[in-house]
Amino acid sequence: ASWHQANDHCKVNNMQLASFANDEEHNMLIKLMNEQLNCTVVCRVWIGANDLAHEGIFTWASTGKTIGFQKWKRDQPDNGSGWNKEEDCVEVLYEPSIRWIWEWNDLVCGNDGHFVCETEKHEANWHQAYDYCKSNDMEMASLTNTEEQNTFKELSKVILNCTKACSVWIGANDLATENSFVWSSSGKKVEFEKWRDDQPDNGFWNEEKEHCVEIVYNPSEDWFWEWNDFVCGSDGHFACEAKKDEIIQFK
Q1: With CB atoms counted within 10 Å of each terminal CB, which end of the chain scores lower, N or C?
Q2: Confidence class of residue 251 from pLDDT cuts 50, 70 and 90?
Q3: Nearest residue to 59 (alpha-carbon basis) of 26, 94, 17
Q4: Domains plus CATH for the chain?
Q5: Among 48, 45, 44, which residue's Cα sits nearest to residue 21?
């Protein structure tokens, strides 16, 4: 999509083109892009930075504020170096053949690229989270291997700023058949699992049955980003995932 199409898509779905406050957030995006886009030769990803209002003054589309953190390649931004005076939108570019390694570049806004949307922190019960993802043309997150689990963990740590405790709903559930966990996005059986040793327990100490899956970080109780079945009506953070031309992150 072009930058404007990407910006419109994010807004229609109650999100914004991505912004970054520090290296940690930027590096996590790079990790996510490497995994989801499988970049081997060239990857171009639009972010929210632009100087559409005032040439040379870059702001974030989400807030209109001047960007603080920056990750330009050494000779950028150049507004086309005299060849093209209309490079007003910012992409993160990976093209190792010309020594671009996930650095920023100003580019003509009408060019096509992948893009990144982000949304504000939300807490909701599992059913509300499911409805939110669906209403925004997304699905609750599913994790199919250790690499995806680790990326999810690192992303949650950075975005949710987990220092003491965090719980994040994912799409796994056994609402249809007890102890037969499936992904809400596909209805397929959960193959990869990361349960804590004593889970799932269907609420052994809880009269309300536990049919929905959260990932829990609470070191004071020996939880280290492991899966737990929990009461679906409880509130927690949640993660949605979308089509491959977008990368969704909660902020």
Answers
A1: N
A2: very low
A3: 17
A4: 3-119 (3.10.100.10), 126-242 (3.10.100.10)
A5: 48
